[in-house]
Amino acid sequence: MSTEALRRAAGEEAVARYVRDGMRLGLGTGSTASAMVEVLAARLAAGDVRDVIGVPTSEATAALCRRLGVPLTTLAETPELDVVIDGADEVDPGLNLIKGLGGAHLREKIVASAGRAMIVVADESKLVAHLGERTPLPVEVVEFALPVCRRALGDLGWDATLRVAPDGEPFVTDEGNAILDCRRADWGEPAALAAAVKVVPGVVEHGFFLGMATAVVVGTSDGVRVLERGSRPAAVP
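Structure (tokenized):
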């Protein structure tokens, strides 16, 4: 199966398993999350699920939802969510994540914190033995603080590279910030690394999502696997 087909299969399973009538959803960003939104829209149009409303984690997801007819709300109107469904760039055996290659990890983390459960959809290429195995750690920073942040992150052992957009200009998040993609030789303990990065002046948010995922729905060449942390979310009967 193609990667696109694996993502679609994961999205279909996540929506079927975790979305129920009347739910308040967090809707993630990225190619896999977009496949999930397309599945959700199709189920809404068919009447298989009703009265669902979603908080998008990016302007891109909001635009997709409007185009497909998925009703939207805001955190101001709906501060508590039942289930958040999002993608990930890396997933370790403990269901810890790196997110942010799509540039939306600040909003994604805020929305995830508002949910009773965070369900991750992914294809099997996102499963890693340890975080940092394949992707950098995205760190969102205030533009004014870029020189300070790069130096401070370097002192912490990170090689921080400014992310650029396809047009060659610096990438700008929905919040108007820059992103430093950070790599290192020794990733060590993610919790300690996350804590050290977060206190650098000018850092807004990092892409470590530690202990946040309730379950990961993985599209594989052998079918869809569901990896769960502890018990299932209360939203699932």
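The chain has six helices and 13 strands. The domain at 3-127+210-220 is CATH 3.40.50.1360 (Rossmann fold).
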